[in-house]
Amino acid sequence: MGFSFECHASCRQTGARAGVWHTPHGCVETPRFMPVGTLATVKGLTPAQIQTTGAQMILANTYHLHLQPGEAIVEKAGGLHEFMGWQGPILTDSGGFQVFSLSELRQIDESGVTFCSPRDGRIIQLTPERSIQIQNALGADVIMAFDECPPAGAAYEEVVAATERTYRWLERCLNAHQCPQEQALFGIVQGGIYPDLRCAAAESLVKLDLPGYAIGGVSVGEEPELIHKIVRITAPLLPPEKPRYLMGVGTYKEMVVAIASGIDLFDCVIPTRFGRHGAALVRGERLNLKNAQFREDFTPLDPTCPCYTCQNFSRAYLNHLVKSREMLGYILLSLHNISELVRFTQQIREAILRDRFVEEFGGWLDDR
Amino acid sequence: MGFSFECHASCRQTGARAGVWHTPHGCVETPRFMPVGTLATVKGLTPAQIQTTGAQMILANTYHLHLQPGEAIVEKAGGLHEFMGWQGPILTDSGGFQVFSLSELRQIDESGVTFCSPRDGRIIQLTPERSIQIQNALGADVIMAFDECPPAGAAYEEVVAATERTYRWLERCLNAHQCPQEQALFGIVQGGIYPDLRCAAAESLVKLDLPGYAIGGVSVGEEPELIHKIVRITAPLLPPEKPRYLMGVGTYKEMVVAIASGIDLFDCVIPTRFGRHGAALVRGERLNLKNAQFREDFTPLDPTCPCYTCQNFSRAYLNHLVKSREMLGYILLSLHNISELVRFTQQIREAILRDRFVEEFGGWLDDR
Known about the structure:
The structure is a homodimer.
Chain A: E1 4-10, E2 17-23, E3 26-30, E4 32-35, H1 47-52, E5 58-61, H2 62-67, H3 71-76, H4 80-84, E6 90-93, H5 96-102, E7 104-108, E8 113-116, E9 123-126, H6 128-138, E10 142-144, H7 156-176, E11 184-189, H8 195-206, E12 213-215, H9 224-234, E13 244-246, H10 252-260, E14 265-268, H11 270-276, E15 279-282, E16 285-288, H12 308-312, H13 315-323, H14 327-353, H15 357-361
Parallel strand pairs in A: 4-14, 5-6, 6-10, 10-11, 11-12, 12-13, 13-14
Antiparallel strand pairs in A: 1-2, 2-3, 7-8, 8-9, 15-16
Helix pairs in contact in A: 6-7, 7-8, 9-10, 11-14, 13-14
């Protein structure tokens, strides 16, 4: 089986491309949005429901799964696919982002990061070797290099040091990786907001001929203009015969801009987070289903949406569920929101295949 | 369409019977457990998931739906079936039980009950006429008479008065009912713990030739012996050509005892409530999935159970989800628990059809 990426169509005016990426657990048609299943569950949805959204690949989090239930349990269960009942491709992140953003009392040195478990207070050390060891045990199709993520607004010298360390850590990750045939290890281009550092990082990573490349450090909450700038600079430097993944991004415009630069894969917690807050993504807009305007709105969220929620329920019913704090409200909204973002990337894919990307999605590329 | 009950087999040694009950929204094979969907949602489950449990008929609550979203919204949506996306038979209770058990500041007189809405504090009056009017608007297949439920431990004279009033209120319900062809109005036999009052109530209700009969006032939390005694006295007095429903009961032994007395239908909040508390019903036992003993238990909840949860997930995964307070844990446990109780009644049904009820389920009838 192994991994291979086929490009089926490329846009003549932009870097957009439509392809099929083969992984040991099946194909991923790109460009494509991937839902996040932090603790080996996409919040509120069964694998059967996730499948109906058109999602082909999902994410899980090494940091969270290391803390609970621990990778030993997942490994004994036969790996993540078996443990969580998802037979399609899975990607685990390295835990780096969570260690830097969620943990208290962390110490960073050349060996790795030491932090306090938020669950039971015990001291945990995560190193490149340890992250890969955990990800080998979890058994996802794609695993990510352990990187140092400098905070937003970090000074140039700080980012230089973090980017260089990220490269040295990547080499250690590659050495530690036990099963490159079964699990593809992606490198992550860091470099903060500094174009020259991004370029240098991309260049040195490309030389390692990795099975895939990610752009990190441009996640939810960043200035959209910053995301656009970094992606436009970095993505074209990555080898065309490998999949390209923009980490943590899943807003409409940012995905279109990134696809135009040649990005293939996206992930974001927005669809499930919005769902749990009673909000729906509908054609680029955010609807708050709690609002009284939906009380007697007996139309679906989006009459053109083929998802289970839109095919069976009205905005009035969703308003009732959300107002009543019923679990089913969060479930149905999460189901729709994931379907919506997957479908959006799928529609872009079809436009690229028909050579109509700029005609149909060019509007999103305008600065506004 | 309308309503009709066919008895397909009767036990030679007990009152147990297996039948098919035709309703405007489809058949219910009896005996059968019905899950509760208080606010027009069986907590955490989509209608598609409910269907996979084998549940054929579900309940909703007039009291809760009157408070939120209000019956006017449900009626405008085209009725409960349309509103909640459940195309099978639905039963609504009268709101009586909730008014008496949940509301503060209630005043009871011959006209009805006045109480304070727990949502916004406004004063609401529920009368037999109002309950039926609301249930007519909700549009369930089966609606229940508005009854007075005396508290547990009520004195004889108090229960006499409540039972007599319940009869007068039933007559008013029948007069108020607008669509007896589409909605079957069931009477409820009350009478507390007093056999003579139960018998008298059953006798007077039977004379009204109602489309179905319920036994009320023997709900979750009552002494099992009391439930057995009342059901054994009351059920055989109800006409055999009509369905018999024991309200609020859904424990294994109590269902077998009731079926042996001729009861056809059950409802109970236990499967979803246990599910939300991380507990599973497995062959008569309650398993707390939070317990460390399940951490590395890679077997399903019940290897003989055909439900989605047991076919796809291990106890170790459920332990992980429940410990992580993930919604999916509650969902998968609720799904299993409902399947388990429906399947239990379905297995009893098949035993009755094969004339093997006492042989296969007689053990539950022993006093212990």
